[in-house]
Structure formats: structure tokens, C-alpha cells
Amino acid sequence: MIAMVCLRLVVAAPLVMATMAPAAKPVQEAGQPIAASTPQIDAATLAAARELVAATDIQKQLKAVIPQVIDAAMSNTTRMFKPDAIPEGLHERLTTLMRDGMTSMTDVFTPNMLDQIATIYARHFSVDELKRLTTLMRDPAMVSFRERMPVVTHDLMPVMMAAMKPKQEAFQKKLLSVITEWINEHPDDRSRLAQPIAS
């Protein structure tokens, strides 16, 4: 389910990242401030990147889609039980767990984190491109697009999940098969498993 949220963010990622200025160093660790400019970062580019990040407002987009993600996650979870058989108390606990977990994800987008995003993506876009992307993000049609995406995502999720399910299940079976085959060929490695698997 988190993957679906990520997909939602990926749609905006190119635009968000366009607002970022080039960095002379690798992405800095959380908590370490990013300098306004470095030998390889143009101040104007960084400023344009930050403007794009602000226009995109990743946190708001993520918060808007959380209810749809929780609904989809719960729908998938209830399939572990017989129809309408999931205990009400458990349903409430899982819903609370998912809501709290998803909501906490928005906390990672601190000013420093957003600055890191801007820095990384600004490496790939010029000042002019960043400014044009910001203009695009503020275009009424794009604003409308972002505002309606939570509802659109709600409609898209079942379609995408249904389409991906066969391949996902096939992949998981293949993955388990490869690991099982390895363990059968190298029994001493069975102790390395976090959870036992059938031979």
C-alpha cells in the first residue's frame, strides 16, 4: 500500500525535484543543514528549485491521499478473513495503525529534507526549466489536477492492484522458489533465515 503512495508522489517527483539546486556533495544526512550555495551550486538555481518544491507541496499531496491508501490497504487485509468475518475490534486497530503510520510519513518532509530534494534535482534542470516547471505547477489546470488526485487515486487503486496482483503473486512465488532452492542446496544457510521456510 505504501508503494501506491510512492507512486502518487512519483507523479510529482520530477516537478518537485526540478526545483532543486545542484549539490557539490552527496546528499547530506538528516539533521545536517545544506548551505545556500557551494562551489558547484548556483544560488539562483537553488532558489528556483526551492520555489518549485514549495509550489509542489509534497506533504499536502501525501496527506490528501492517505484515506484512499488506508481504504485500499484494509480492503487487501480483510481478504485474509472470510467475507465480513474480520473482528470489529481488530478492524479498528488495523485502521488506527495504518492511519498513524501513514500520517507519520509526512513528518519526514522537514525543511532540511525538502532542501536535500531540491539540491538533488536541481542538478538535472536549468534555472529556466525550474522556473517553467514552477509556473506549470501553479497553472490552474495543474492545481485542479492535484486537488482531484485523491479521488482519482481512489478510483485508480483497485484497477492497478487488480492488474498487478497476478504478476506480484507470480514474483513472490518465484522469489520463494529461488530461496528454497538455495537453502536445499546449501542447508547450512538455513540458520541465516529470519523465518523458516518449507523445504
Can you tell me about this structure?
Helix content is about 70%, strand content about 0%. The longest helix has about 45 residues, at about 140-185. It has seven helices and no strands. Helix 1 (about 1-20) packs antiparallel against helix 3 and helix 3 (about 60-75) crosses helix 7. About 25% of the residues are buried. With about 200 residues, the chain is mainly alpha-helical. It has one domain.
Q: Brief overview, please?
A:
The protein is built from seven helices and no strands. It is mainly alpha-helical.
> H/E order of the elements?
HHHHHHH
Share of helical residues = 55-70%
**Oligomeric status of the shown chains?**
single chain
Count of the domains: 1
What's the structural blueprint in terms of helices and strands?
Elements lengths: L1 H17 L24 H14 L1 H20 L10 H18 L5 H12 L4 H11 L2 H46 L14
Helix pairs in contact: 1-2, 1-3, 1-5, 2-5, 2-6, 3-4, 3-7
